[in-house]
Design goal:
It comes from Nocardioides mesophilus. With 319 residues, this protein is α+β, with helices and mostly antiparallel strands. The protein has helices at 18-34, 48-54, 67-70, 73-80, 90-97, 99-108, 121-126, 129-140, 166-174, 219-223, 238-254, 289-296, 301-315; strands at residues 6-10, 38-42, 59-62, 116-120, 144-148, 158-160, 179-184, 189-196, 203-204, 208-212, 228-231, 260-267, 273-279. Strand 12 and strand 13 (273-279) form a beta hairpin. It is globular.
Length: 319
């Protein structure tokens, strides 16, 4: 590894989460500079590959959120041109980014995950929307949560507490993707758990309990300062705290992730931990949960990312 690695932070892109990505990129770039790392920030466009060829960085830190950054395609291109990068490999990204697939793998690994149905828009329309919604309510009960199967930042996500509200929930989800995930809504405490692996195996950082002012952790609650209270470490018993850590690490391993991930969990009134989804490129903005976990663990964000960069450079572009 070079003594002073040159790092390229990629942020922006064309997904609905562009603004969040840019904020994550700025935050990480500043943290890396504070840690003494040479950093360049760049958006993703037609000039990226010529840049990689002519001014090759030692490592890329992809902080693109949404489909263009988390579906594995960008990382596959980085492997094609032989540039090391931080984070999960393309195949693992594709699996983790597809919520129903990730839930199925988590369930096979022994994790609790809410009952759900994934419905493509074409199926929903061809079978008759009213009949399908009646069947959903009959099978899954109420309340439900409806969200796109691919995407993040709670865009297109809504909690449905009545049968009459389900139609609008489906419309909202289809506005952000071609397939909607209709999932039984688990009442309880929402907890985010970051998992990091700096070479000694994955470990969970302190869990963050999420308490949005409006009761729902939607896009506004996630990225508007002061609209959500974050409690870290979460107010959990020692046994439940150990269980949320176990669930997050199990999901990270079962899905074949590496370096950094964040699992979104629910702890219900009986102390059971439910796996909802995992993020391979978690937000690192000033209102995101991962930096809070890093700080609660007594770590420095820039130093941690620099350590992960070192690991990425040492393993090479396609290992």
């Amino acid at each position: 590894m070079p003594d002073s690695p040159r790092v390229l932070v990629l942020a922006g892109g064309l997904s609905h989460e562009r603004d969040v990505s840019l904020r994550s990129g700025r935050r990480v770039a500043e943290a890396l500079r504070d840690a003494g790392v040479e950093v360049e920030e760049r958006d993703v466009d037609a000039g990226l590959l010529p840049l990689l060829a002519g001014h090759r960085p030692d490592c890329v830190v992809p902080l693109l959120h949404g489909e263009t950054g988390e579906d594995g395609a960008l990382r596959e291109v980085l492997e094609l041109v032989g540039v090391p990068y931080l984070g999960a490999r393309p195949d693992a990204c594709r699996v983790a980014f597809d919520k129903p697939v990730a839930k199925a793998i988590a369930a096979r690994a022994g994790l609790l995950t809410p009952a759900s149905v994934a419905l493509p828009h074409e199926t929903f329309r061809e079978l008759g929307a009213a009949a399908v919604m009646d069947a959903l309510v009959a099978a899954l009960g109420l309340p439900l949560i409806v969200k796109p199967t691919r995407g993040g930042s709670a865009l297109g996500c809504s909690v449905v507490r009545s049968a009459e509200a389900l139609a609008q929930g489906m419309v909202d989800a289809f506005a952000y993707g071609t397939t909607a995930l209709v999932e039984r809504f688990i009442e309880g405490d929402e907890v985010a758990v970051a998992v990091v692996d700096t070479g000694d195996g994955p470990r969970a950082l302190p869990p963050v309990q999420i308490e949005p002012d409006g009761g729902v952790y939607d896009y506004t609650a996630r990225y508007t300062a002061g609209s959500t209270e974050f409690v870290v470490p979460a107010k959990l018993s020692d046994a439940v705290a150990a269980e949320v850590a176990r669930v997050a690490v199990t999901a990270h391993e079962a899905l074949g992730l590496r370096d950094l991930s964040r699992s979104d969990l629910i702890v219900d009134a009986d102390g059971r931990v439910w796996f909802l989804e995992v993020n391979v490129a978690p937000g690192l903005t000033e209102t995101s949960t991962v930096p809070l976990s890093v700080q609660a663990a007594g770590l420095d964000l820039g130093t941690l990312v620099a350590d992960l960069v070192t690991l990425a450079i040492d393993r090479g572009p396609a290992d």
